[in-house]
Amino acid sequence: MSASLSTDLPQRVQSQGGETIGLAGAINDHISHTPWESFDDQAKWKAFSQRSDDGCWVSQVKVQGMHCSACAAIVEQRLKEVPGVLSAQVDSLTARARIVWQENAVKPSRWLAAASEGGYALLPIQGGDALEIARLAKRAMLWRWLVAGFCMMQVMMYAWPNYSAGPGEIDPTSDRLLRWASLLLTLPVILFSCGPFFRAAWNDILHGRISMDLPVSLGIALTFIVSTAAVVEPKGMWGAELYFDSLTMLVFFLLTGRWLELQLKQKVVGQLEMGADLLPVSAQLLDGSQGAKTVPIHSLNAGDVIQVRTGESFAADGVIAYGQSETEESALTGEALPVAKGVGDLVYAGTTNLSSPLHVKLTKVGTDTRLGQMNHLMQASLHSKPQIVQLADRIAKPFLVTVLILAAIALLYWWPTDPHRGVLAAIAVLIVTCPCALALAAPAAFLSSASALAKEGLLVRDLTALERLERVDHMVFDKTGTLTQTTLSVLSVEVTEGYSVEQVLRWAGVLGSNSLHAVSQAVRQYVDVAGLASGEEFEVLGIQEFAGLGVQGVLSSKNGAQMAYKLGSDRFCGILPKTSAIGQRAVYLSDDHGLLATFYLSEQLRPDAAKTIAVLHDVLNQRSPSMRSHLSIMSGDSAQSVKAIADKLGWDSHDQVLSECSAKDKLAGLQALRSKGYRVAMVGDGINDSPVLAAADVSFAPVQGAALASVKADFLLTSASLAPIALARKQADDTMRIVRQNLTWALIYNLSCVPLALAGVLTPWMAGLGMALSSLLVLMNSLRLQRKGV
Amino acid sequence: MDILLLLIPLSVCLALLIVVGLWWAVNTDQFEDLDRQGEKILDRD
Q: Is A239 exposed, middle or buried (0-12, 13-18, 19+ CB in 10 A)?
């Protein structure tokens, strides 16, 4: 390390005698092998940078290794020292840096390397261009709001003398000066702060449509014109009073409402958009002969093998080819407990490798990964419009037209007697009837709810489902893979007399590890746990899997002897079936001579299943206390095993148990329930049972191990526990309650204020204040849905 | 109260200057990461 490093870095990470201490040291080791040249390709710049007109690029990068704001200063300094970098700003709170550089003078690799030499890793943020746009939008909003706020205070200062003085107490010249001062300080508000309102209103007029901004802009324009007339002609018709103070206050309150709306949207949409922060930017591609090569992740393909080191996140979905470790998958499933993974296990993009390095053979990259699919789903769900939102949209246009007409009526009514009051009334009507709160009422609540559920491991594919879920009073569950875990486990083994247990288990283990079927995996795991897994003793000469029946293979041991083995059902192995206990199933290992071993497997209930059922019982009972039955199991399995599961879950006598059902039987069962008047939600297999799921009012499907896009259900359960389903049912109640609260409030506010405005009692600033407060109320009410237990 | 004839226009100029100051502050991201912006003046340039 260079001498300058020891003076620049904070004490904690100084290198001492060649030994690096602390995170920066570890990162330095990592990044000194990372070539940055791959980022010099201009085609890649758009992913994390925005180009401005004069050949300058603005890049957004993540900074790793900072632990205080002094580090931020160091990174900035190093970046700025690179010729060609025009500016560098590091935000220590979000650990992001914004660099402005000229494409002719410097390439990204140069400044990326500069920061890394100081011990900090810079990683370009995928989607950084969108971040930059969002940042500029937020900044523009801040500017407008500050101008409105500051000018509002100044204009009020100039208006105060008129409020506190009696008539004739202010001398005419001073009064005129005060009026002109008010006008001058309202100009910035009109010019800067009102921009978005006027632009939107102008667009509306050009296209012959109407939106919320049109009445508001009319109101603002009218106020400004009338008050300017008062300044220019104090003795004229309008000369009596100025309304600049009301105007600026109104604009300030309007912008405050918009600001809060922007904050909520960014917060909620940001939570739904998992992705940018979870994926690494580069990966270590293992190239057989050449060892590990660093490549950007969008150049990875299925079939590539990458090396994932401890602490790194996986760049794509894949199968572990080498190594054993634990992963943390909370990004996908909402559970933070580490999951043990070994060779053959699946790992997912965006999850973190916790304990040891792994080699992963990729199966899905980019948007095909589960993370990519989840992202896509969440984006799509934002476009789905619940009925109640559609209703609000439909009444918006006639409502706004009515507003304009009412304003005109107010003006005309008061004009003969008191034009002043007429104008005031018109302005108040235009402003107070702005349906901002009404427009926010439902969307804010649905979005808030969807993001809260996503954090718990339940993805909402369709927001309208939340609406329908509220009315559900009966839930139907599938058994295998839904109530029970998708993995089976071996309870016990019976080995035929005359064979050594270890040998038999070894053979079974080899067969089991060559198949992905749940039964094979259970056997393999059993053998692994017994410590008997080995690959070297046998050579596998041929493996054939027969879907749903079994696996057969020819194994050759060291001394050359070849034997054919079969692992599977009784018919597959050619033996007579044995009776197994309730809730268990038997799988057999046989060779040409006959039965070698019997494995007894059991299905395990999902964790929390009993608790979930209890909660659902309560909630559904509350919904329709007159109906007796609220839960059903519909399964293709035998009556014995289904009854056993139902008992374990706490099914009572009113609940339904249907066993040995085909798909048609399940469909018939559903129809029967609906004809009795129930609203039914179904929890089942999203791929094989999709026609049945589609027949229910609301559908849930667990997605472990399946491609998200092929699962057709309203709610996708990514968590291993069933608890999110009960949570969703309760959440649906809360969501609709809050939507109704919001709408009620918005309507009451709008309707009660209109008569007041028409009478000329409501001044413009009161109208503006009311609007902002009502929007705020709706937003805060919706945020209650993010807390558990509203 | 003739002094008001001077003070009122003066205050308008001052207020406009402050608006310019606000514009500078927003443009140079003074309101992002308040800790960092405060320490920026201590940087070696």
A: middle
Cα separation, A599 vs A587, whole angstroms = 5
Select from A142, A154, A173 the Cβ nearest to the Cβ of B31.
A142
* Contact residues, chain A, for B36 at CB < 8 Å: 69, 72-73, 90-92
Structure-block tokens of residue A293:
């090569």
Half-sphere exposure in the Cβ direction for A580 (13 Å, CA): 23
* Predicted structure pTM score: 0.62
Which positions in chain B touch A90 (Cβ < 8 Å)? 36
Q: Do B19 and A91 touch (CB under 8 A)?
A: no
Q: Using one digit for the tens of pLDDT, what is the confidence trace for A401-434?
A: 888 898 888 888 888 887 778 888 888 888 887 7
Q: Is A583 within 8 Å of A602 (Cβ atoms)?
A: yes
Kind of pairing, strands A292-296 and A282-286?
antiparallel
Give the burial class of A735: count Cβ atoms within 10 A of its Cβ; 0-12 exposed, 13-18 middle, 19 or more buried.
buried
Measured CA to CA, the distance from residue A38 to residue A22 in angstroms comes to: 28
Six-digit token string for A589:
């290992």
Q: Which two tokens stand for residue A346?
A: 């699946």
Cα A702 to Cα A230, A646, A654, A688: the distances in Å are: 68, 19, 26, 12
CB–CB of B5 and A151 under 8 A? no
pLDDT tens string A527-585: 887 777 665 667 777 787 775 567 888 888 777 777 888 887 777 777 777 766 666 77
Select from A734, A753, A755, A756 the least CA-distant residue to A745.
A753
Half-sphere exposure (CA, 13 Å, Cβ side) for A280? 27
Query: What distance in Å separates the CA atoms of residue A373 and residue A379, rounded to the nearest whole number?
Result: 10
Whole-angstrom Cα distance, residue A507 to residue A74? 61
Distances (CA, A) of A450 to A669, A697, A730: 30, 18, 13
Q: Which long-range contacts (CB under 8 A, 24 or more apart) does A174-181 make?
A: A174/B1, A174/B4, A174/B5, A174/B8, A175/A234, A176/A234, A177/B4, A177/B5, A177/B8, A177/B9, A178/B8, A179/A230, A179/A231, A179/A234, A179/A242, A180/A231, A181/B8, A181/B9, A181/B11, A181/B12
Residue A725 has a CB neighbour count (10 Å cut-off) of: 25
Distance from CA of A784 to the nearest CA of B (A): 27
Q: Name the 3-class secondary structure at A481.
A: helix
User: In A208-243, where does DSSP find H-type helix?
Assistant: 213-232
* A389 CB burial (10 A radius; 0-12, 13-18, 19+): buried
* B4 interfaces chain A, CB cutoff of 8 Å: yes
| Residues of B whose CB is below 8 A from A69 | 33, 35-36, 39
Angle at the Cα of A394 (from A389 to A399), degrees rounded to 5? 115
Alpha carbon distance A154, A147 (integer Å): 11
